Amino acid sequence: MWHTTRFEIDLTQPKIMGIVNLTPDSFSDGGQFASTSAACKHAEQLIRDGADILDLGAESSRPGAPPVSLQDELARLMPVLKEAVKLGVPISVDTYKPQVMQAALDAGADIINDIWGFRRVDANLSAAQVVMDHGRCGLVMMHMHRDPQTMQLDPLPESEDVVQRVKNDLLSFHERLAQVPCRQSAHFDLKARLLIDPGIGFGKTVAQNFALLARQRELLDLGFPLLAGWSRKSSLGAVTGLQEAKDRMVPSVAAALLALERGASVLRVHDVRETVQAMKVWRAAQSAVN
Questions:
Q1: Which residues on adjacent β-strands are paired with residue 113?
Q2: Which of 160, 254, 265, 266 has the fewest CB atoms within 10 Å around its CB?
């Protein structure tokens, strides 16, 4: 069970996290859902398509994306979040800013999904302290090498064992987070609230991304459920020749199924309906084996 603010999510069966981009410059669907009305309609459609969780993001983390101000991120996020928490499914907020985490949790968000792995400190406010002080939210701790502005200009060295590096870094992030006291409860169970994400495309080469997929089960040795985020990524375009992100639905579903086969518990996707259909085939095959 993945413990979050309002929901205990049963991960004995994999779950689909539908992406709701609130940015004008996302690599995949930037600007399509920038208005509150359009974003809320999209969120409702993703639920009808079969999303178990929604992930709202108001700042693009594509390679080279410029940082967004705190005020702009909150202005994009909060009107949609206030409506989304009424939809009856867990709501995740994709942010690295401690102030945004605090505002999102105060507004009822269930999960914080952080590309920086809860390492940021802004204006003397620590991301780790915000989530630990809340004491109830679910967490997604992602691995990123460098930052969105530089990560693909200077990715991890090809000579490095990327799987071992990601394991070591995620373990280090976890140990740092675990040292932060939870002032709301003396019995806070971090392990019951934490998922890891290897950060496909975040400071890795194409070959390294596929090594992380091929050897994904090794990451489960850390003892945490894993979220896989392959949807429409440029590495899929590199091996298929599909230059436009919107055209990468089929390779995205293929990568999602490979991640499922290798133990992923949550799939973060744009194409919810198609991924749900593919997962039904996968489940039927699993049932036949069992």
A1: 94, 140
A2: 160
| Cβ-proximal residues to 228 (8 Å cutoff; 6+ apart), any chain | 197, 198, 200, 216, 255, 256, 259, 260, 264, 266, 267, 268
Task: State the Cα–Cα distance between residues 92 and 110, nearest whole angstrom.
Answer: 6
Residues labelled catalytic: 233, 268
Q: Could you give the number of structural domains in the chain?
A: 1
Contact 128/179 with Cβ under 8 angstroms?
A: no
Residue 134 is part of which domain span? Answer: 2-289
Query: Per residue in 41-68, pLDDT tens?
Result: 999 999 999 999 999 999 988 888 888 9
**C-alpha Rg value of the chain to the nearest Å:** 18
- CATH (domain of 143): 3.20.20.20
What the block records as the tokens of 15 is 């779950």
Listed in sequence order, the residues at least 6 apart from 119 whose beta carbon sits closer than 8 Å to its beta carbon are 127, 128, 173, 176
N-to-C CA span, the chain: 21
